[in-house]
Write a structure and sequence with these properties.
With 314 residues, the protein is α/β, with parallel strands linked by helices. Helix content is 37%, strand content 17%. Strands 3-2-1-4-5-6-11 form a seven-stranded parallel beta sheet, sandwiched between helices. The longest helix is centred in the first third of the chain and has 22 residues, at 84-105. The mean pLDDT is 96.
Length: 314
């Protein structure tokens, strides 16, 4: 059996779909299952069973002999969350418990970290593990992921294979339930459909034109391909970036959404809110050499075909 936590969520449900495509159908879905909208992501997928996240460790103690791999994707992912105790419980301490069970039962593990750990990118976006303890996230969500990454690197007892994946700006199917935390692609689609235009933050730095702020946008199908590659690879443990490796502008993204919807481009630039202006990122780009260096040679989907595949119904 393969465990996927956060199974009803955006990346978790896409991962299960990808596993099903490869005829992995003995999947245990772990989540809270308290959101009817989110649970729609599991409709039509082959799943052997569902386990509530609060009951998972007791379930694992009874069933570990049949578990082949754990993908721990579940987390509290709201970057505006201010409840430190909740983030510590769901993101840091829960992941420590997963890690310890994988050590105890010799189960390989892939877990979700985040590019939010990089903060303003003062040290670049390099997944060199010597640099990781020096990173300074900008929000409590990033802190919760950073604390676990540092803890994992300090452990003497580790799963025989483990990988932490620093997800960059992931977009794609099944994110509709995420509200504010959904991708810019999803928000652009909805805003353009509703108003015929898209509002973007204007630049407050002279070396960037309006809408030319850049992010590493990565298609969810590529993300789950990396997860499946690591499941089969099972060596070269460590923390890896997972982006496209190619930063693109918000203007590029929005123009691709207009093109996918066959609508004329109409972009309005508005001031970046003052409360986030000082910490607003103008550039993120994952260094992807480490993952490629262990044998992942597949090309990542570029922005325009990724957006078209996401938004245009065949």
């Amino acid at each position: 059996m393969i465990i996927v936590t956060g199974a009803a969520g955006f990346i978790g449900s896409n991962l299960i779909q990808r596993l099903n495509q490869d005829n992995f159908n003995a999947i245990i879905a772990v989540d809270h299952f308290n959101d009817p909208e989110k649970n729609k992501n599991l409709v039509g997928l082959e799943i052997q069973g569902k386990v509530d996240r609060d009951e998972f460790f007791a379930w694992l103690d009874k069933n570990y002999e049949t578990v082949e791999f754990i993908f721990h994707i579940g987390a509290r992912t709201d970057t505006t969350e201010m409840d430190v105790e909740l983030l510590n419980k769901l993101n840091t301490e829960y992941t420590k418990s997963v890690w310890k069970k994988c050590c105890q039962y010799q189960i390989p593990l892939v877990y979700a970290s985040s590019a939010a750990t990089y903060g303003l990118g003062e040290l670049g976006y390099d997944d060199n593990e010597d640099l990781i303890p020096q990173l300074k996230p900008l929000n409590l969500y990033g802190d919760s992921k950073q604390v676990f990454d540092v803890w994992a690197l300090q452990q003497h007892e580790k799963p025989f294979f483990w990988a932490g994946l620093k997800f960059f700006n992931v977009y794609g199917p099944n994110e509709y339930h995420k509200g504010r935390m959904a991708s810019v692609v999803w928000h652009a689609y909805n805003q353009i459909q509703k108003t015929g235009k898209m509002k973007l933050f204007r630049s407050h730095k002279p070396d960037y034109k309006d809408g030319e702020q850049m992010r590493d946008f990565v298609y969810v199908k590529d993300v789950v391909d990396v997860c499946v590659f690591l499941m089969h690879h099972r060596k070269n443990s460590g923390i890896y970036n997972l982006g496209s490796g190619k930063a693109r502008t918000f203007n590029d993204l929005v123009k691709a959404v207009f093109a996918a919807l066959n609508k004329p481009v109409d972009i309005e630039y508005i001031d970046t809110p003052e409360d986030i202006r000082e910490t607003y990122q103008y550039f993120t780009e994952a260094k992807m050499g480490k993952l490629k260096g262990i044998g992942f040679t597949q090309d990542f989907t570029s922005l325009e075909p990724g957006i078209k595949a996401y938004l245009v119904v065949p």
